[in-house]
Amino acid sequence: MRPTDLLKSRVQADWTAATDHAFTRALADGTLPADRMAGYLQQDYLFVDGFVRLLASAIAQAPALADAVPAAQFLALITGAENTYFLRSFKALEVPADAPACPEARAFQDLMAEARASGRYECMLAVLLVAEWSYLDWATPFADRAGALPFWLGEWITLHTGEGFAGVVAYLRDQLDRAWPGLSPREQARVAELFHRAVQLERAFFDAAWAGFPVAR
Ligand SMILES: Cc1ncc(CO)c(N)n1
Predict the structure, then answer these.
(1) In a mutational test of the pocket of ligand 1, which residue from 43, 155, 205 has the highest number of ligand atoms less than 8 Å from its CB?
(2) May I ask the CATH architecture of the domain 3-211?
(3) Which pTM does this prediction carry?
């Protein structure tokens, strides 16, 4: 079994809870209230701040230029099309971009800061991979729904489906699969632990979003 499949299979219950969630089902069938999405996007914009820094750190740690290039292209997408999606959505939903971090967003920021501070490529990859792979998993079954939804719901699906995004996940998996055999048992355990905590935080983030993050006005 690929190391990344093994990592996922060990945390299957949390993975399923995070990727087959009432929040994303409501998002995809268009019944998610605008306020619920607004609160989620405000908190997720804080996540993106930490994610950009973590991805930049992984680029800096990549073993060779060829390993860094797909990550750098993905970084451009997040700071380009995805960032613009956030700003357009805040405008359409009539909320500011800035909001105080809720505990679930703060926990993610802390985890990403920890992965960054480790200085270890495999630790950074573990957290990046969970974030992107779990989003590919929840969004892919809804790919054909995007067009019928308001853009602030539909484009969130589009950004996390399709060949390009699947390629990002394939690349992150490949990077971690390749690093894995060179790690000591202790290093492998650290990766597994970060992977699991990231999955738990994805689950907690959707739980909190579904209950409703407070919306900053
Ligand atoms: C919390 C969270 N996890 C993953 C992604 C995908 O990048 C996101 N936007 N937000």
Answers:
(1) 205
(2) Up-down Bundle (1.20)
(3) 0.98
